[in-house]
Amino acid sequence: MSDQYQAFAKSPIGKFVIKNLGLPSPTHLDRFQSATPVIQGAVLLGAAPSSSLTAEITQVLANIHANSYSGNNPELQQIAAKSGLNVGAYNEGDKESKFKAVVFDASGIQSSEQLHALYAFFNPIARQIQRSGRVIVVGIDPDAATTVQQAIAQRALEGFVKSVGKELKKGITAQLLYVQPGAEANIESSLRFLLSPRSAYVSGQVLRVSKAEVLDIDWVKPLAGKTAVVTGASRGIGEAIAHVLARDGAHVICLDVPQQQADLDRVAGEISGSTLAIDITAADAGEKIKTAAAALGGVDIIVHNAGITRDKTLANMKPELWDLVININLAAIERVNHYLLGNAGLNANGRIVCVSSISGIAGNLGQTNYATSKAGVIGLVRYTAPTLDQGITINAVAPGFIETQMTAAIPFAIREAGRRMNSMSQGGLPVDVAETIALFASTASTGLNGNVVRVCGQSLLGA
Ligand code: NAD
After folding, report:
1. Alpha-carbon distance values, 14 to 20, 140, 159, 418 (Å)
2. Of all protein residues, whose CA lies closest to atom 39 belonging to ligand 1?
3. What distance in Å separates the CA atoms of residue 191 and residue 417, rounded to the nearest whole number?
4. Vertex 191, ends 188 and 195: CA angle to 5°?
5. Is 383 a catalytic residue?
6. What is the whole-number distance in angstroms between the Cα of residue 226 and the centre of ligand 1?
7. What is the 377 CA–ligand 1 centroid distance (Å)?
8. Is 241 close to ligand 1, i.e. is its CB under 6 Å away?
9. pLDDT tens for residues 188-217?
10. What pLDDT digit, counting tens, does each position of 331-355 carry?
11. Entry pTM
12. Residues 437, 454: contact at Cβ < 8 Å?
């Protein structure tokens, strides 16, 4: 679906009209391209006094060869040097320096008074972050704080990050990474994702990293040797997920209903994957998935992407529309998971990734069935996560307005509102959802379990 407003906004006359009428001005977002560094541009690093995560942050920056800078902070520079990170000196007050990313270790903030460290660090450089730049604040999960004051101060970081995401514009994203005790060594996959253009349409989000085994992986092909099943893979977001997981090294079994066989063959052909033409609501769907993956070493990753909308206001909704949506979008996922987990159908260190929706967070007119199903998916992730073992994880993405056939069917005015009512002033692309799913699917993401991340350009809905 083409975004004609965005095309207009790029033209000279469009720029003039938009500026003078105060209309939203969508920025071109950088997106990931193979064989490029994680981040292209300078990274400014800061830390509140006595922060405890700087060593792990600088280690990641050293691993990705980030061109890093800091102001006058001898404590931080010493820690960075130990990680093998060469941190250049940045003269505070130098307005000419521009940064592609700004990373701030806020883990040392113990009280509301100490939140001043955020202001002191970000205020002078707030205008120096480049287009499609990244702001990342790293903190301690408030649930794991040792004092009430610390929990309050760490929880306060969320408001800061969400406001920064709304203020800075130019496609700049802002995120908060909460680290649980003992999970310091598990932050690399999240930090790489948040720094890179893979997170182009993710903003104002909180990721929680928990303690887990640290596995050695090839960052270029993090899914090498893995078998992934993607439901609803014949088009739209599912097609993009299949492509991204294959790019990251997985063999992808593309699953969709038999009516979609031709498109399914096309997608699988493009990525040297295989096909499974079944309806996921069938009673034996879990068994069929397990059988299809058996010759490929079993299922390592299952992405529950297939989903439908059947919109009607509650008063006009027929019972069959209610049942169909709940069955495909929620009950089928529960049944398949139940079968795979109960019948050795998911390998150790397996990954379950679900697709929810911001409708499931905010609710939506005409979508009582859909929003119920998608809120159910969030519940499924939250309450399944603590029950898993053998390194298996479950997480979800909640897309906002993504340009697909599903959103092309929305009436014009509502579609246009959906596209613009977010910090990026544009709809996301299927690849944006796929990249976030690839983060959760990654072998390196052992510490991500029970997260729900919105891929919505920081939509105003349900914020
Ligand atoms: P789409 O309609 O383009 O694709 C969905 C795919 O799922 C289709 O290929 C369809 O055949 C398949 N499918 C439907 N029922 C199935 C069943 N019973 N068994 C097997 N396959 C089945 O939709 P999309 O926009 O790509 O959406 C993908 C997912 O993302 C859905 O879960 C949707 O709810 C969610 N989502 C989309 C958006 C958006 O803006 N497009 C926003 C939020 C959430």
Report:
1. 10, 44, 34, 20
2. 402
3. 32
4. 140
5. no
6. 24
7. 14
8. no
9. 999 999 999 999 999 999 999 999 999 989
10. 999 999 999 999 999 999 999 999 9
11. 0.95
12. no
